[in-house]
Amino acid sequence: MNVETTLVPEPYVWTEPPLGDAKSAPTRFYTDPAVFKAEVEHIHLKNWFFAGRVEEVRNPGDYKALDSVGGPVLLVRGEDGVLRAFANVCRHRASILLEGCGHASNIICPYHAWNYRLDGTLAGAPGMREVPKFEKPPHGLIPIRLEVWEGSIFLNYDDHAPDLMTHLGNMPELIGSHRLGEMVKTWHIEIETKCNWKLLLENAMETYHTGIVHAATVGAQRSVSFPTQGEWHVIQVQSNRSIAVLGQEPPFPVIEGLSEQSRKGTYFTVIEPTIQFACAQDCMWWLAVRPIAVDRSVLSVGGCFPKAYTELPDFEERAAPYYKRWEAVALEDVGILEKQQIGLSSILARPGPLSWRDDMVLAMNRWVMAQLPAHIVDGMA
């Protein structure tokens, strides 16, 4: 399929209501605990979320523990080479099993020493032989649905949700020439934020603010939008070179084989509901949001480069400006969004008119509202 003819950029992609009538979402969309509770139930526990990169759990016995809206999660590579995800809780009394990242030959509960094989089956339960009717097979770790796309790990708590490729729709067509599966994660930070999860994603999909909030870093930007199929959105910030560094010539060359459209700038995507992949001409970085409460979120920011770049003797020196840019811009965004969250709590705050540069903000808001029960949406008016 020809990417250049199937995904054509447009000045903006607008949905009803028409430009001129569209307004920002009601303040309760960002401040009401009842709305947040409904989002957890109807959105976050039913859609795919980002859990990391396969190179983090490359070898048998490698594991990674992470938090999610549905609770603690454990990624582990089995002796059979299969990557699996489990609820990171013991089947005895729900103690956390492992923390951080590491390597293990088996999984032992630190509380009562129940132990599990790397495939999640229960191997031993001290003292349970004396318990009538106790059997090991039903008490293995509880699996979580997992799929991998281009080296990125996605999880879903809903066994009945559409598969990941259906969710991604035509996204692989647009960014396929970046060959994300051949990239390697080299950097990662997490930032605790005092704002609603949706504000972080909305901000990441508009360039209206960049010349103001990021005046001292990335500066003013212009973008085009693309109509999409599937549960995702995309803009492209136009630039004939990578914008993943600040005020200097990019230290790395353009990715070999990059498509003509991809050479024209950086794609900023949002895979609903909480994932952004930003694909520049020489790298990829992500923003993944974990909602904590209606006014608190954790922002994960990480970066990847083609494997060949990471093998260069001066890779770390070359990569340092990228890390500096990614962290600096993320902190600038968090600073303004925390102010916005405070403003949204005002009893006098009202929805304001949207600019054409807010096209993806509107699209994302409408996607979220479409997933929520009617009484929740009607109650925000």
Automatic annotation (TrEMBL):
PROSITE patterns: RIESKE (PS51296)
Transmembrane segments: none
Keyword annotations: 2Fe-2S, Iron, Iron-sulfur, Metal-binding, Oxidoreductase
Matches recorded under InterPro entries: Rieske_2Fe-2S, Rieske_2Fe-2S_sf, Ring_hydroxy_dOase_asu_C_dom, Rng_hydr_dOase-A
Sample GO molecular function, one term: iron ion binding
Obligatory cofactor(s): Fe cation
Domain Rieske span(s) in chain numbering: 48-155
Protein name: (2Fe-2S)-binding protein
